[in-house]
Amino acid sequence: MSLEQERQNARDIFHHLGYPTRKTENWKYTNVRDIVEFIEQNNARSAAAYTLSINEIPGVTVVPLLQAIKDPRIAKTIFGLNYSASHHHIIHPFLALNSAYFNAGVVITLQKGVHLAEPLRIQHFNQASAASTEVRCLIIAEADVRADIEIHYQGEPNATYYCNIVQQFLVADRAHLNLKFLQDASQQAYLITHTLIQQASASEVCSLQWDRGGKIVRNDLEFYLQGERARCEARGLYQMAATQHVDNHVTCEHWSPLTQSRQFYRGVLQEKAHAVFNGRVFVSKEAHKSISQQLNNNLLLSSEAVVDTKPELEIYHDDVQCQHGATVGQLDADALFYLRSRGISEEAAKQLLLEGFMQEILN
Questions:
Q1: Which of 63, 64, 123, 174 could form a disulfide with 53 if both were Cys (CB 3.0 to 4.6 A apart)?
Q2: Angle, to 10 degrees, between the axis of helix 3-17 and the axis of helix 72-79?
Q3: C-alpha distances in angstroms, 257 versus 229, 289, 290?
Q4: Chain centroid to CA 128: how far?
Q5: Backbone dihedral region of 28: left (phi > 0), alpha (psi from -120 to 50 degrees) or beta?
Q6: Domain check: are 146 and 174 in the same one?
C-alpha cells in the first residue's frame, strides 16, 4: 500500500472517531475545544516552525522518517498503530490524526549490543506562533542495548502553537533503556505526546516524565510487556500553576509471565491549575506471577487547584500481585510547624517540604 493510501486510511479512521469530547471516557477531564479551534484556524500543517535536533553518537543511526518509511517493514510498524494492538485497545484520535498528517520525524536505531557512553538527546523545539506540527519518531533498541535517552520538549516563550508527537519504541531482548521526558513548552502551547513502548523478553525500561510548561498538555504513555520477565517503571512529576492543565494517562499491559510494572507519579498544583492522572494496569490470562504497583500523590497549594486521579485495574489471572493508591492533600502542617520552630521562615520551610516531595521522583 502506498504512503498516500496509508495516510488516507488514517484520515478515514480519524473522521470516524472525531475529536474527543468530555463524553469520551479517556478524555472526560480534559476539554480539547481550544485545541480543536486552534487546529482548525491553523490547519496548514508545516514543519518550518519546528526543529528536531539529535546528537551524533557511535552505534546509533538516524534516518529521516520520510526516507525510512519507504521500507515496507518501517511503514507497517508506523501505520499499524492505527489499528487495534489488542482486542481491547482504544484507538487514540490524535494518533490517527498524526498518522494522516505527520510532516516531521526520524527513525533511530540503537545497534545490537551497543552501550552508550553518553545520553542520546532528542530535542523538539517549536519556534513560532500560529503553527501546527505533527511529528512521528520510531526508536529501535536492538538486543542487549544499554542507553540513556533524553527527550526535551521546548518552545519559544509565549509562542502559541500546537504540536502532536507520537513516539514508538521497539525494545528487543535484554535491552535496557532509561528515558527522560522533559517538558518545558511555551506557557501558551498545546502539546500532545503519545509514547508507545513494546518490550521483548528480559528488557527493562525506566521512564521519567517531568512537566512544567504548556497551556494544555496531554501525555499518553503505554508499555506493552510482551516478553517474559520484561520490566518497566514509569515515574512522573508535574508542576502546574496559573490556569495550566496537564493530563497524564499511563498504561502498563502485561502479556507474558513474570513481568513487572511500577507507576509512581506526583504533582504540585498552584493557583487555578488542573491535573489529571489516569493509571491503568492490564494483566492477561497468560501473565501469571506478574507484579504491578501504582501510586499517585498530589499537593494542592491553592483552594482553586484541582486534581482528578483515577486508577484502573483489569486483571485476568489470580496468581498476580497488584497494588494501587492515590492521595490528594496539602503540605503537612506538623512538619511545617516543626521547621518554623527551628527558626526557618515560612517560605523557606514550604520550599524544603516541596523539594523533599519532588526529589523522591527526580532521584
A1: 123
A2: 0
A3: 7, 6, 6
A4: 23
A5: alpha
A6: yes
| Cα-to-chain-centroid distance, residue 15 | 24
What are the grid coordinates assigned to 204, written together?
527493562
Distance CA 252, CA 292 (A): 9
Angstrom distance (rounded) from CA 351 to CA 353: 5
Residues 250 and 282: their CA atoms lie apart, in Å, by: 11
Residue 63 CA to residue 57 CA, distance in Å, equals 14
Q: Closest Cα to residue 149, out of 127, 171, 125?
A: 171
Q: What is the pTM of this model?
A: 0.95
Q: Does 177 lie in the same domain as 288?
A: yes
Which residue range is the domain that position 185 belongs to? Answer: 3-330
Q: Are residues 167 and 178 in the same domain?
A: yes
The three-class DSSP label of residue 182 is strand
- Model pLDDT for residues 173-198, shown as the tens digit of each residue: 999 999 999 999 999 999 999 999 99
**Nearest 5°: phi and psi at 328?**
-135, 125
